[in-house]
Amino acid sequence: MSRAEVSGSAQHTGTREGAGAGAGGAGAGGVDARRTARPLWSLGLLRNEVGTTFRRWRTVVLLAVLAAVPVLIGIAVKIETGGEGGGAGGGSGGAAFVSQITNNGLFLVFTSLAVTLPVFLPLAVGVVAGDSVAGEAHTGTLRYLLVAPAGRTRLLLVKYATTLTFCLVATLVVAASALVTGALLFPVGEVTLLSGTTVPFGEGLLRALAIAAVVTLSLIGVAAIGLFVSTLTNSGIAAMATTVGLLIMVQILDTIPQLHAIQPYLFTHHWLSFADVLRDPVYWDRLQQNLGLQALYAAVFGSAAWARFTARDITV
Amino acid sequence: MTQQSAGDRVIETRGLTKRYRGGQLAVDRLDLAVPRGSVFGFLGPNGSGKTTTIRMLLGLIEPSAGGARLLGEPMPRAARRVLPRVGALIEGPALYGFLSGRDNLVRFDAADPAADPRTRARRVDQALDRVGLAAAARKKARAYSLGMKQRLGLAAALLQPRDLLVLDEPTNGLDPQGMREIRTLVRELAGDGTTVFLSSHLLDEIEQVCTHAAVMARGRLITQGTVAALSADTRGRLTVGTPDAADALRVLKEHGITDLVVTEERVTGDLPAPPAGPPDLADVNAALVRAGVRVRSFGTERASLEDVFVQLTGEGFDVAG
Hints:
The complex is a heterodimer of chains A (316) and B (321).
Chain A: H1 2-29, H2 41-54, H3 57-84, H4 95-101, H5 107-116, H6 120-139, H7 141-147, H8 152-185, E1 191-192, E2 198-199, H9 201-218, H10 220-232, H11 236-253, H12 285-311
Antiparallel strand pairs in A: 1-2
Chain B: E1 9-19, E2 25-30, E3 33-35, E4 39-43, H1 50-57, E5 65-70, E6 73-75, H2 79-82, E7 86-89, H3 101-110, H4 120-130, H5 146-157, E8 164-168, H6 176-191, E9 195-200, H7 203-209, E10 212-217, E11 220-226, H8 227-232, E12 237-241, H9 245-254, E13 258-263, E14 266-270, H10 281-290, E15 297-301, H11 305-313
Parallel strand pairs in B: 4-9, 4-10, 7-8, 8-9
Antiparallel strand pairs in B: 1-2, 1-3, 1-5, 5-6, 10-11, 12-14, 12-15, 13-14
Helix pairs in contact in B: 3-4, 4-5
């Protein structure tokens, strides 16, 4: 009873004093009331996010590892063929290309992308995507971005766009490293396509660029999955591990013959269809299936990430 | 009994409640009113619901019931309009260790939709200067001490002229010199017309800088008002210095003074509660002298906020609710 009385009388006094203070502060109160949102600020946030991501040591190390893969393949092929004289078959995906590397260094680009797409590239993307939201939550910077206020939907879009930027950069790093290594170790010249047609080196380069684009787009599904997982937890490491775990699981499911009914719906299933770009004319069927499937994964997991992130209590 | 319009209240909550999924009631029907221009101390032991309240005010946590208005607009609906005018330090600073102090501020500023990129560099430098970090601006944040991180967090809240600053435990990790600087800064900001909402478990700190205070315990608001009114409502303790303790004790008891304690040549006791009304202290003193009690000293000690808190919650301040 006495508690309520104390509280009540204190409140009345507070109200009176508050009115006096309010009159004093009113003049300064409206200083920046006119400050409104700027139309292009999202681009500024995106630029900052991309810059921040690529300044992390982890990102630099991932890119360095990706750049090393083509160099290792190139050296291995060089040593191998130096001994035997003939091109030997490599892994299943890159087999078609490996035998061609000694004739044309440009094929090292195709081989390297074929080797990195199933494992290294999605792994790197899984790390970056998985950490995107969960890592910020873990360090607590997420709450400061949100009260800035970045806006939850915008922040999520910026995070996804940054992950896609990383997909592109990572693919280009592999391709560029392979191109340089191939040109240094092997002869370059006219390109014989998988269908037997020969095209000039310039067109070969364009096709390599097209393949890099297809490989980048092949990664948007796994990037969306990583982003969704990232909104579920406050631990960047857990999100990365879960994303990479999912990737490996899907890869295994894709190899079990009894599961052929579901395999066309696995986001990894059509990945190596990018080789169809090297046919004349280009086979579009599997390429379209792949890109359609990636778009579907991006839509489904992107929506799930949005639903989760915009409704979530930020308690860290 | 002046009725205030909503515009005079920078923070206003009505029945604000948060029940976490586990069923734990973190904040229970909170009605908070923070007047414009005040330095408002938000008190309570750890776990009393202060941080959950602050997170609800800033739109980080969705209330289970009730609502909050910040600068006259509903949260979290108006977050885009309101939050650029609010600077916040929530549960300690959070920084990107691999970025320099300066780049940390640039990043937080880039996240503010209302921030002008053309003035960014200047505003960042001013904020760093204001918290005394200009010399360490290019150092990586992971090399900062806790106090420096705290200052950088404050700098982030000061990137723009704000109408409201929400500072959750701003002196954590600071040395006494740093604490004093923060207090000076808070007074300065308040002088510029910024309302400062300051949460702390250091009663001393609140008493020194705040004009108003609210006390929370176990998710409930126990009281709020001006610091002066809060202390005044608590009965002070009467202290009489005398060699004639036994006589003094008898006279004081007759005047309704309770909880009398005799220590050496001092008698202390609680003045009666408001219903009976405390007696005129001049009468008490005269009665003592008339009874032949030799009085060396006579007076009341004003209650500190800590006394207020203990009286209101019936427990020590550091006990988690």
